[in-house]
Amino acid sequence: MNPAPYIQLLRPKQWIKNGFCFAGLIFSGRLFEIPLAFDAVRLFIAFCLASAAVYVLNDILDAPSDRHHPRKRLRPVASGQVPPRNAWALLAGLAVVLALFLFSFNMLTVGAILAYLLNNLLYNLLFKKHIIIDVMSIGFGFVLRLLGGIYVIGEVPTAWITICTFFLALYLGFSKRIVELKAATNGDADLQRKSLGSYTPAMLDKLLNGTSIITVTSYALFTVTSHLNSTLILTLPFVYYGIMYFECKTLANETNEALEEVLLRDHKLQVIIACWLLVYIAIFYWDIRLFAY
Description:
Elements: H1 4-10, H2 23-28, H3 34-66, H4 76-79, H5 84-102, H6 107-125, H7 133-151, H8 159-183, H9 189-192, H10 201-225, H11 236-251, H12 259-265, H13 267-285
Helix pairs in contact: 3-5, 3-6, 6-7, 7-8, 8-10, 10-11, 11-13
């Protein structure tokens, strides 16, 4: 048996999204506490198992529509490389291993993981068929990763970082819809994704602009109202530039890749994220204070 299609079915490239599990360590100022770092790593693995299970289920359920998509038709189940029976068996195995992980977390963290699974189940069965709520469901998935990463270290999230994460996820979700709509040919948007045919380019442009503005604004409010260190507002230019850079690439049709592929290949975007992170850590952990609360 060739293991490559089964590994592809788990979509390990997309596990980069589970990096949101480490946000609690970074934003709480406890990045260098080794025991908590291990907790965050365990949570990251748990979310990788959960997201892999979700991807397997998604590929099983979406195989008929994926066959109409220029890229998704090559997915293991849609292309016939992995029989549905084997995919269901893999899904069951992932569920068992994930269940063992759940016993090692506190109740709030377990709740975040279970809510993530429920949200994705509802997405596959219902939400993905309807515009706006399909992307909102994706946004909730990112928020639940963030919350899990905060709860696992015994902290409580601020409202603004939660809102910022949600609208950042919406922004990325609408960017993906723009790319998918441009890639749809011969009026087959509905066949590729149930909700895609209901979107229009003008609608998506407005949604993208709106979510980008709210993302930047909520991040700015997080830096100055969370009682951490108002000097963190100096990281805002990196956030703004990164979002506008990604939006320009999307609207100019310079990318037809998924988010995780862009993050892995776009060196400029990698530099932007690295600079933001380094400046944030320097200000927060060295307690640099240039502004009053």
